[in-house]
Amino acid sequence: MRDGPLPVHERPLRVLIVSDAWQPQVNGVVRTLETVTELLRARGDTVQVIGPDAFRSLPLPGYAEIRLALGAAPTLAAMAEAFSPDAVHIATEGPLGWAMRRICLRRGWRFTTSLHTLFPEYVAARTGIPPGLAWAVLRRFHNAGAGTFAATDTLRAVLARRGFERVQEWTRGVDLSLFNDAGPRDAWTGLPRPIFLYAGRVAVEKNIAAFLSLDLPGTKVVVGDGPQRASLQAKFPNAHFAGWRKGEALAAAYRGADVFVFPSRTDTFGLVLLEALACGTPVAAYPVMGPVDVLGGSPAGVLDEDLRRACLAALDIPRAVARAHAERFSWPSCAETFRAGLVPVTEARERPPVPAEA
């Protein structure tokens, strides 16, 4: 029989995470889930992540790198039952997320969810559909669970105003050993300085054109890829588009820049902000959700509705100040917060013994 609510368990847990955002996608949601999964396993938990890679899938129209699982429900239900989880977390609101939600409700399983993006604003940016409809759909999805994890105070306040229930804190972290300010800053040798860098998905909701349109000295660099890359490259031929970079190459890209520019107005956090700061690169951004929460009142970046003014002012920020601010964020703390927020699948449910080799 169960020992009691999961947040006070000290024994290893079996955690099932279902996410429409998973490998080989490259984004903040995937990096967060990868890191948390790795840390939970290191502490002795058994974690299974089920993503679109486990099923037949189709590319999301206009966004080929995102795959949508097809007809996954029967197999997903069998996989979930076979895993026999202590806790279920549904990380996204895509086809897999909705399928797992239905499975949990039919079985009487309790589950948690997380909200990573302002999806209604993304839908509005792409289609012109009023965001109110999408907010209603999201509210129905998340309020069926026992808790919704959100990364920042600002996002939690927005969700509360929108009628979301049981909203919980789940902040983010940064790999301070990988993303560091100690290495060489020669990633952009040959390009005129200063280097103003954007890194992330190249998509309309990221508002990258607002950055590339700025009258700035030096060079604008875009690291990443996505559905808007070709059109932006054609419109802004003087910008340098470097494609995706990972690991040490991504850290070198951040470190080699003079200012990291974050033009998005709809991101709920912006993991790339922490990565850039950890590499000693100050931030320029709009004073909106995400940058406001990551930077707070820190002098590690400049938030201004005049993004050009923010970029130029950020050039004067000492790199040591940026690094010091990033050091406040910890992946182990992020993983522990996630684990503590999980709920037991049921209050008292027998689970068959798991074979030693499983």
Write out key terms for the chains shown.
358 residues; alpha/beta; Rossmann fold; 2 domains; six-stranded parallel beta sheet; 14 helices; 14 strands; 16% strand; globular; disordered N terminus
Summarize it:
The protein is an alpha/beta fold.
Taking all Cα atoms into account, the compactness measure Rg is 21 Å
The name CATH uses for the topology of the largest domain is: Rossmann fold
**Total beta strand runs:** 14
Count of individual helical segments = 14
Mean pLDDT: 90
Question: Biggest sheet: strands side by side, in what order?
Answer: 2-1-5-6-7-8
Uncertain runs: 1-8, 348-358
| Broad shape | globular
Give the total of domains.
2
Element-level helix/strand string:
EHEEEHEHEHHEHEEHEHEHEHEHEHHH
Please describe what this structure looks like.
With 358 residues, the protein is α/β, with parallel strands linked by helices. The longest helix is centred in the first third of the chain and has 15 residues, at 28-42. The chain starts with 13 loop residues before the first strand and ends in a 17-residue tail after the last helix. β5 (87-90), α3 (95-107) and β6 (112-114) form a beta-alpha-beta unit. α1 crosses α14. It has 2 domains: 6-173 and 332-341, Rossmann fold (3-Layer(aba) Sandwich); 195-328, Glycogen Phosphorylase B (Rossmann fold), CATH 3.40.50. The chain has 14 helices and 14 strands. Strands 2-1-5-6-7-8 form a 6-stranded parallel sheet, with helices on both faces. Strands 11-10-9-12-13-14 form a 6-stranded parallel sheet, sandwiched between helices. A two-stranded antiparallel ribbon has the order 3-4. It is globular. Mean pLDDT is 90; it is low at 1-8 and 348-358. It has helices spanning 28-42, 73-83, 95-107, 119-127, 131-143, 153-161, 208-212, 229-235, 247-255, 271-278, 291-295, 307-314, 319-326, 331-341; strands spanning 14-18, 46-50, 57-60, 63-69, 87-90, 112-114, 148-150, 167-169, 195-199, 219-223, 240-243, 259-262, 283-285, 301-303.
